[in-house]
Amino acid sequence: MSDLMEDPISGTSAAQEAGKKSHPKKVRVVPESLKKFREIQALAEAGGPPEKIAAQKAKGKLTAKERIAYLVDEGSFQELGLLMETRCTDFGVKDKHIKGDGVITGFGRINGRLAAIFSEDFTQMGGSLGRTHADKITKLMDMAADARVPVIGILDSGGARIQEGVDSLDGYGEIFYRNTKYSGIIPQISIILGPCAGGAVYSPALTDFVFMVKGISHMFVTGPEVVKAATGEEVDFETLGGAMTHATKSGVCHFVANSEPDCFRQVKELMSFLPQNRFELPPLQATKDADERKISLMERLCEMDPRKPYRVHHVVWWLSDDHKFLEVHHNYAKNIVVGFIRLGGRVVGVVANNPAHMAGALDINASDKAARFIRFLNSFNIPILTLIDVPGYWPGVAQEHGGIIRHGAKILYAYSEATVAKVTLVLRKAYGGAYIAMSSKLMGGDINFSLPSAEIAVMGSRGAVEILYSRQIKEAKEEERDALRAKLAKEYSDKFASPYQTASTGSIDEIIEPAQSRTRLINAFRLLAGKRRPGENEHTGNIPL
User: Fold this and answer.
1) What are the residue ranges of CATH 3.90.226.10 in the chain?
2) N or C terminus of the chain: which is more exposed, having fewer CB within 10 Å?
């Protein structure tokens, strides 16, 4: 009976089709509707005019489509809104029939994990943002939030489309609102691969991480010409808003790359540490690095003079799985180091004082840098490892007038607010209010360790004896004063700055063998693995600090 059934499209039966097999095949005529569709699709996928694409390439830049191809797994990108066009009827904009309205939006996989991606196309009206352009981005962001996947924006735009007037500004408002609404719910990443000026800069500033490329990326609220007209200052694009400017001075940029491919490699590496959303844990990764690996080099810290500088990066590398560390904000506020490692396969966020820069003291920029990173970790269920070697807050009139009290309070607030697992290790010195700020026990630290040689006190022993024994020092003979200071400093240190004294009050949970630091930290985080369930904690957005 099935042989008698007709094909619903051709109207022929299976028996008739079988009879035709002995005859030569006829050339199939492509329907006109399909021809038209393929022509329109090819035109839309081509992007801007050939001369605009050539100009983009001449600047050393990739096209919007090529950028997505570098970022996602091959063949995984599903574009949405390919044929959308502007609704603007003024200045002949609609007559240009620009398909996609200067932005590519869709979903793709990065190392097998889904992400929402939009890429602005500078070859189409300079990538300027009109209302349709903004609608495509906001729709994608809404879908990403519903699907609980990260949003990655590739920005290369001349800014608001002047021809569309306030509609373009409204479009930015819609994007900013969603950046804020979905903050702390799904990770948001901005990749600046061209100009990003005026109001456009505030969307990246609201996202969790910003990537820039040397010589290609520029961000500023007002450009060089406006600056010159308003203030008389002459400055070029790179100095005003280039990658290194924002990486070293403003702190807007978290990662700097030497090329676009290098940038996409860095984005992929960052993504490997992040969960898809606040309802998940970060991905586990198998490692052959033994949990019991001993670190004999940690013993050298016990021998060092507390005033001698060293790069805390070495300690982080010694501790982490396979000695891998993805540092965030490498070029900004170098007195504190933040980033991602794995311990026993689990992702951990690191916050560490860096004695190699400003003695590791906390200042305004370091406090802001650490506080925002801590809040990100707390939003996305990433436990926090704090490594302490801090002499205090950085002194000076500029710091006081700049608001070190207000900024310093941010790191206190961030640690106190965080409900993820918090493990602390005092490496060397931990003095004063800065020690309290660095996830100390009474600030909510879950497990606090110390190395045997650590000094934990209100202040350093040398400064303390100058206050406590000032009369004795003055009365001593001049040639005996240095020896007296050293003797009193040792007595003070042994009695008031000893980790054993701190451990006796419960402010430190345990003093550990330096070589076993890695093992003890891994076990601590395993013990705390069930401290809270993803998504059950109160939602807090990652506000810029």
Assistant:
1) 47-271, 296-460+497-527
2) N
Choose the catalytic residue: 48, 81, 198, 360. 198
Active site residue 198: yes
Q: Which pTM does this prediction carry? A: 0.90
Please report, in tens digits, the pLDDT of each residue of the chain (545 residues total).
445 455 555 555 555 555 555 566 677 787 878 877 787 777 777 777 888 889 999 998 999 999 999 999 999 999 998 877 777 666 556 666 677 788 999 999 999 999 999 999 998 888 888 889 999 999 999 999 999 999 999 999 988 886 777 888 899 999 999 999 999 999 999 999 999 988 899 999 999 999 999 999 999 999 999 999 999 999 999 999 999 999 999 999 999 999 999 999 999 999 999 999 999 999 999 999 999 999 998 999 888 888 899 999 999 999 999 999 999 999 999 999 999 999 999 999 999 999 999 999 999 999 999 999 999 999 999 999 999 999 999 999 999 999 999 999 999 999 999 999 999 999 999 988 999 999 999 899 999 999 998 988 876 666 666 666 567 766 677 776 666 666 666 666 666 668 888 898 899 999 999 999 999 999 999 999 999 989 888 888 999 98
In the set 144, 371, 434, 489, the catalytic residue is 434
Contacts of 147 (CB under 8 A, 6+ apart): 107, 114, 116
CATH annotation of 47-271: 3.90.226.10
Torsion of CA 281, 285, 289, 291, to 10 degrees: 30
Active site residue 433: yes
CA dihedral (168, 171, 176, 177) in degrees, to 10, reads 140
Q: Degrees (nearest 5) of the Cα angle 529, 530, 531?
A: 95
- Residue 113: how many other CB atoms lie within 10 Å: 16
Q: How far is Cα of residue 534 from the mean position of the Cα atoms in its chain?
A: 20
List the structure tokens of 363: 């200042």
